[in-house]
Amino acid sequence: MRVPALHPRLLIITLLAAVAAGGCKSRGDEISAVKGSPEFIYQESRKALKSNDYQAAIQRLEALEARYPFSEGAKQGQLDLLYAYYKNRETESAIDQADQFIRENPTHPRVDYAYYIRGLVYFEGGANFLERTFKADISKRPPQDARSSFQSFQTLVQNFPKSPYAADARQRMVYLRNRLAEYEIRVARYYMQRGAYVGAANRARSVVETYDGAPAVIEALEIMSAAYRELGMDRLAEQTDSVRQANLSPDEAGQRREGSDSWWRFWN
Questions:
Q1: Residues 180, 150: contact at Cβ < 8 Å?
Q2: For the segment 139-163, what is each residue's pLDDT rounded down to a tens digit?
Q3: Whether 183 contacts 147, CB under 8 Å
Q4: Are 208 and 221 in contact (CB under 8 A)?
Q5: Which member of 3, 39, 73, 192 has the lowest number of beta carbons within 10 Å of its beta carbon?
């Protein structure tokens, strides 16, 4: 009997499953194969990191953490393990490692690094392999990773403003702020099209409140104004139009930045 050929997409999925199964060799076996003192294991992990052999570094650092959790290099080893997970694209392990380090070492002098790498992991989290292979459109998907990344960078910048990672975190926050604001605008547009004017106004207002400075704020104010008019709230619509016009004026915009940061809260 002739066996029907697999569809190309099913073939790819089958091959991926086979690779995953083959890669499921117990990491415990790999850890048990690592021998030596904590100092030796740590030095070997450093060599592996320098040569970009992240898998080998992970094996040694996991062994160090499992066998010698209270050794002199244990804390730095945890941060190195976080970095190795990140570079090896082991997203879940990297996030778990960062969360664990932050939870157990909230006052550690390098806890800012854990926040930074956590933010990077989420920042670089996009379409997975299958989504890229099949060219899936993820532009309309809720940007959960972007929110988590923004929160990590925000905590870093607020709590550790002098951190060597703060400047880069701020730049990434600008990008994330704009992306998150644009997604909220997309939702607000959808609500307007569906006639859900209260939902549209609330979504647009959240953009103005949360993402001040994002290019999408202008459109958010336009949506708010249109939604208020549809709801018969002409006074709020007029106030929104005034705020939008002021925001478009360089002189008045400059005065707004120097004044209260609550310039737009006319609805309170």
A1: yes
A2: 456 689 999 999 999 999 999 999 9
A3: no
A4: yes
A5: 3
Rounded to whole angstroms, the Cα distance separating 212 from 72 reads: 45
Q: Cα torsion at 11, 14, 15, 16 (round to 10°)?
A: 120
Neighbours of 193 (CB within 10 A): 9
Integer-rounded Cα radius of gyration of the chain: 25
- CA–CA gap between residue 207 and residue 222 (Å, rounded): 12
- The answer to whether 156 and 112 are in contact (CB under 8 A) is yes
Q: Which two structure tokens, joined as six digits, stand for 119?
A: 């933010």
pTM of the model: 0.75
CB 115 within 8 A of CB 156: yes
Q: What's the CATH architecture for 178-268?
A: Alpha Horseshoe (1.25)
Let me know: does 119 contact 149? Beta carbons within 8 Å.
Answer: yes
Segment 114-117 long-range contacts (CB within 8 Å, at least 24 positions apart): 114/79, 114/82, 115/152, 115/153, 115/155, 115/156, 115/159, 115/160, 115/165, 116/152, 116/153, 116/156, 116/163, 116/165, 116/168, 116/169, 117/82, 117/83, 117/86
Distance CA 179, CA 165 (A): 21
Question: Which residue ranges make up each domain of the chain?
Answer: 178-268
> Which pLDDT belongs to residue 260?
36
Helices (H) and strands (E) in the chain, counts: 14, 0
Residue 153 class from Cβ within 10 Å (0-12 exposed, 13-18 middle, 19+ buried)?
buried
Place of tokens 């392999």: 129
